[in-house]
TrEMBL record, chain A:
Protein's recorded name: Uncharacterized protein
Transmembrane intervals: 199-217, 238-264, 297-318, 325-345, 390-411
Annotated keywords: Membrane, Transmembrane, Transmembrane helix
UniProtKB/TrEMBL annotation, chain B:
Keyword annotations from UniProtKB, A to Z: ATP-binding, Nucleotide-binding, Transport
Domain ABC transporter: 3-231
Claim: Protease is one of the keywords in the record: no
Family: Belongs to the ABC transporter superfamily.
Protein name in the entry: ABC transporter ATP-binding protein
Signal peptide interval: none
PANTHER family to which the protein is assigned, alphabetical: ABC TRANSPORTER, ATP-BINDING PROTEIN
Coiled coil (UniProt feature): none
Length: 417, 293
């Protein structure tokens, strides 16, 4: 315990660690604030002039006029009728034909509802969504019963012909059954914000990889390890203390920044919006059975698991590296490896590889969030596996395996004589 | 306490760094002498248990050190040639860290750290970051950490590098006190560091131990091979080229007194000089003198 405390003190006293942790905290706040600036609102003032707002003021304006609470079929119908009335009034064939101030005054509050209705009633063969005028009041009353059919067609469009397709359909339907309906909605936290949570996770992983990479490698580089290996506790105990300290510091930094992001995001967008079903943010058939608020925490914990697997890999590389540069290079490459594999290696092999490498689930378009809200399945031996499930299930195994390899690699150095 | 090295060899791809070395170390200060590249550091790293020998065994009181594992490391104090420290640590932080590594309880560690800092004259700078200390002070921190667990076996690789003459004297006295009932092995190519305190010396050359004895015993090998003679200054260049000159001293009358190594006197009126360990070293490593020339 004393060794752990001293190792913790040593890493925390490193100037680089202090700088990186400060950057991480600033990033958490910036990443929470940036999506706020994407929100816009336009209205006419008393003189009839257009006035546009962005940021917090726009959010408050939208929230004043929002549709809020449980979105029943009747609310869906009300939304469609409002849209169709305005479309008819302006003889519009698309939203671009509606004056912007009218859009904000009359339709903005219903936009996510109508967009999701269009998605729900998309052509099952082509995936093409109908126009606003192509939807009926009856469709709106059948909105929720239409969703499983829509899900089936999406899976068919994306996965048909793959061995294990039937199983993929069953997995998706089972997951969607767990989604609470009718959905709830309140304007606020946006999909952009969730994107930024994912981006923050990537950046935090990069920063923490830089903190973890020298933990063992710098001792090998400076020769400090030679002295350590000659001491009573310089074997497994030191390895355990170093691993525990590295996990503690990077883990605490990650969780602190993640929590700060959630608190700042929700404070800026409004806590009420955390009750919104995630289906309004991404896709009407998204599988996570969560509200936005729940999803934020689920993503924090899930990404944290994957983050720990990556830190474990970086520490293992640090044990095996003979200098900081090697450890740091391997660490940084390993963080972006899933993204590179995802873009470069085609087919099923690439999908499995990008999932099973230590940082699988960290990245941009390949990140865990997008695997949770999309319909990506991995196939092996005629079986289908939901990729997000594999990412999450494999993370603890990776952690145990990589920590074991790190400890084993270090112990090998103590058993040379 | 006995540390027996049996036929130790360390081979690298294209070089044999230590070649079939056998020696038994008993309590007392041992000097390990040799030119750079003689294999001293490799031998010490194997003794410290951080380098695997290609063949041979190292036994501590009859048990292989690999088998002893942590029990052997508990007896060990080691200062490598390149002393890696944590730049962000103060002297106090670093010694506390090393004390924890050596398994000292916190109160005992605090007591030992206070005493050692006093002995190596670092009490004043204990709150200073190591990176801000002079080379000699850093070396003393290294010596302090090696002594922390009151080791029964102390291995010091070039411990006096960077120390000024006063520090060297203090270091020698410290080791002499410390070496009671303990094995202290000091590798150096600064002969005067071990000349007066080493009970035994081993001389390494090209990976082999070519001589092993007390300082007096070793010095006997070059009795009647160390000479002193006086020449006019204008002849210095000629004789310096021809002789293995250990030392030269300018005299007030414009002549130069040379101390040199040779099987027989070479200068007119040469007289035998009292041989010292340094003379033996230069006798055994003539290439060091060639480099100096």
């Amino acid at each position: 315990m004393n060794l752990y405390r001293l190792e913790l003190k040593r890493v925390c006293k490193t100037r680089m660690t202090a700088i990186l942790l400060a950057i991480a905290l600033v990033l958490a706040v910036v990443m929470a604030y940036l999506p706020v600036t994407f929100i816009g609102w336009t209205e006419l003032d008393a003189s009839g002039n257009k006035v546009s707002y962005t940021g917090l003021k726009a959010i408050r304006k939208r929230q004043e006029q929002q549709v809020s609470g449980t979105i029943t079929p009747d609310v869906m119908q009300e939304a469609l009728e409002a849209y169709q009335r305005v479309y008819r009034q302006y003889d519009a064939s698309s939203i671009n034909d509606i004056p912007v101030e009218v859009f904000y005054k009359e339709l903005a509050r219903y936009q996510p509802l109508v967009n999701n209705a269009k998605e729900a009633f998309a052509d099952p063969k082509t995936g093409m969504a109908p126009g606003v005028m192509g939807l009926t009041a009856e469709d709106m009353q059948n909105f929720y019963s239409q969703l499983p059919k829509r899900l089936e067609s999406v899976i068919w469009l994306e996965q048909d012909g793959k061995p294990g397709y039937e199983q993929a359909q069953a997995i998706a339907q089972k997951k969607f059954d767990a989604v609470q309906k009718p959905f709830t909605y309140s304007f606020g936290v946006s999909s952009d914000a969730m994107d930024y949570q994912t981006l923050l996770s990537l950046l935090l992983t990069l920063l923490c990889a830089v903190i973890a990479a020298p933990v063992f490698a710098s001792d090998a580089q400076t020769g400090a390890q030679d002295i350590q290996l000659c001491t009573k506790n310089g074997g497994l105990r030191l390895a355990a203390a170093k691993l525990a300290a590295a996990f503690s510091i990077t883990g605490a930094a990650y969780l602190l920044c993640g929590v700060v992001w959630i608190l700042v995001t929700n404070a800026l967008f409004g806590w009420e919006s955390t009750q919104t079903s995630v289906q309004w943010l991404f896709s009407v058939t998204s599988l996570p059975p969560y509200t936005v608020g729940q999803m934020e925490w689920v993503m924090l914990v899930a990404n944290f698991l994957i983050f720990f697997a990556e830190v474990a890999f970086v520490l293992m590389a640090s044990v095996w590296a003979k200098n900081n540069l090697t450890a740091l290079s391997v660490a940084l490459i390993s963080v972006v490896a899933p993204l590179i594999v995802y873009m470069v290696v085609p087919g099923s092999f690439g999908e499995w590889l990008s999932t099973l490498i230590p940082a699988g689930g960290i990245g941009l378009s390949n990140a865990l969030l997008y695997k949770m809200i999309s319909f990506d399945f991995l196939y092996a031996g005629g079986y289908a596996f939901f990729q997000a499930d594999v990412l999450l299930a494999s993370a603890p195994i990776k952690i145990v395996l990589l920590v074991g390899l790190a400890a084993w690699g270090y112990l090998r150095k103590t058993k040379v004589a | 306490m006995e540390l027996k090295i049996q036929n130790i060899t360390k081979r690298y791809r294209d070089k044999t760094a230590v070649d079939d070395v056998s020696i038994t170390l008993t309590p007392g200060v041992w000097g390990l002498l040799g030119a750079n590249g003689a294999g001293k550091t490799t031998l010490m790293r194997m003794l410290a248990g951080i380098l695997r020998p290609s063949s041979g065994r190292i036994l501590c009181d009859g048990v292989e050190i690999g088998t002893l594992g942590a029990a052997y490391r508990e007896k060990l104090g080691y200062l490598p040639q390149e002393f890696g420290f944590y730049p962000e640590f103060t002297v106090q932080d670093y010694l506390e860290y090393m004390a924890a590594l050596k398994g000292l309880p916190r109160t005992e560690a605090a007591r030992q750290i206070d005493a050692l800092l006093e002995r190596v004259s670092l009490t004043e700078v204990r709150r200073k970051k190591i990176i801000k200390l002079s080379g000699g002070m850093k070396r003393r921190v290294g010596i302090a950490q090696a002594l922390l667990n009151d080791p029964e076996i102390l291995i010091l690789d070039e411990p006096t590098a960077g120390l000024d003459p006063g520090e060297r004297v203090r270091f020698r006295n410290l080791l002499s006190e410390f070496a009671q009932e303990r094995i202290v092995l000091i590798s150096t190519h600064i002969v005067s560091d071990v000349e007066y305190i080493a009970a035994e010396n081993a001389v390494m050359k090209a990976g082999k131990i070519i001589a092993q004895d007390t300082t007096e015993g070793l010095v006997k090998q070059i009795e009647a091979k160390v000479w002193q003679g006086n020449i006019p200054m204008e002849q210095l260049a000629r004789w310096e080229y021809r002789l293995r000159v250990v030392n030269l001293r300018n005299e007030p009358d414009g002549t130069v007194t040379l101390r040199y190594l040779a099987d027989a006197p070479q200068l007119p009126d040469s007289v035998p000089a009292q041989p010292r360990l340094e003379d033996l070293y230069l006798w055994l490593f003539p290439e060091e003198m060639e480099e100096a020339k």
